Amino acid sequence: MWIALVLFYGICKGIREVGKKEALKTSSTFEVLLIYSAISFLFVLPDFKNAMGLEAKYYGYIGIKSSVIFLAWIFSFIAIKKLPISLYGVLDLSRVLFASFSGLIILHETMNLLQWTGLALVCIGLISLKFSKKKTCESSEKTQKPQTAFVILAFASCALNGISGLLDKILMRQINSSQLQFWYMLFIVLLYTAYSIITKQNIRIVKTLKNPWVWLISILFVISDRALFIANGMEGSRITVMTMLKQSGTLVTILAGKFIYKEESILHKLICAAIIVTGILFGVLFKDEFTI
């Protein structure tokens, strides 16, 4: 059952990325972010009784996590709007790189030779993305620099998600999943609301609520996270297998790039993704505590 739940999480994550790209076709980035987070919070609101009873200091810690996610989502939504979905899906695998370095630097975790080999494979796979066949036409050259900026934003989002994952690891030692999910979603809604007011964003609430893709990504976000929480708590669940199954979302985005958006260099991206996933496999097989 826990294997099915984690696989469900990975597939939902891939579908969410496609849903975000579609939602952004008719709504602005901050319209989607605000309404998406608000709807998601409404889905976790019935669980508020289980979220009560936190010590005061943990509200501050969750506030820090929420601020990190606030920025991570802005960067990721901007990047996914402009980048090919198949490329974004592979870039998203880089979060394992940032999770590893944060564990090394902050938690003082250690890595053996095989784990360093795995990390090197992750780097090789990401670097290899740069060497796909480029069009020689002038229009391709003109779009190369702007695309680089969005790739940087995608990496920045992954780095922030790595920090968020590290905070999750620390917080989950003291609080439960209902408390963490409820409060960080509430803080995120407040952050996006405050930002929209301060910057005078034009939020078309009714129009965005009519965007079916916003509802889809909100529902998938809540139920996939809950599925992952349940899987983590099941007896016999293995972090090594779970880490691998989470990467199924990348296959979804690459296939969506091929069959929905008719993107190019799909085989090249699949090879790069395979190299990165092999590196992740090295990491999770040779250290039970390695997490993403």
Automatic annotation (TrEMBL):
<feature type="domain" description="EamA">
    <location>
        <begin position="151"/>
        <end position="282"/>
    </location>
</feature>
<feature type="transmembrane region" description="Helical">
    <location>
        <begin position="266"/>
        <end position="286"/>
    </location>
</feature>
<keyword id="KW-1133">Transmembrane helix</keyword>
<feature type="transmembrane region" description="Helical">
    <location>
        <begin position="58"/>
        <end position="80"/>
    </location>
</feature>
<dbReference type="InterPro" id="IPR037185">
    <property type="entry name" value="EmrE-like"/>
</dbReference>
<feature type="transmembrane region" description="Helical">
    <location>
        <begin position="213"/>
        <end position="234"/>
    </location>
</feature>
<feature type="domain" description="EamA">
    <location>
        <begin position="2"/>
        <end position="127"/>
    </location>
</feature>
<keyword id="KW-0812">Transmembrane</keyword>
<keyword id="KW-0472">Membrane</keyword>
<feature type="transmembrane region" description="Helical">
    <location>
        <begin position="113"/>
        <end position="129"/>
    </location>
</feature>
<feature type="transmembrane region" description="Helical">
    <location>
        <begin position="149"/>
        <end position="167"/>
    </location>
</feature>
<protein>
    <submittedName>
        <fullName>Drug/metabolite transporter (DMT)-like permease</fullName>
    </submittedName>
</protein>
<dbReference type="InterPro" id="IPR000620">
    <property type="entry name" value="EamA_dom"/>
</dbReference>
<dbReference type="Pfam" id="PF00892">
    <property type="entry name" value="EamA"/>
</dbReference>
<feature type="transmembrane region" description="Helical">
    <location>
        <begin position="182"/>
        <end position="201"/>
    </location>
</feature>
<dbReference type="GO" id="GO:0016020">
    <property type="term" value="C:membrane"/>
</dbReference>
<feature type="transmembrane region" description="Helical">
    <location>
        <begin position="29"/>
        <end position="46"/>
    </location>
</feature>
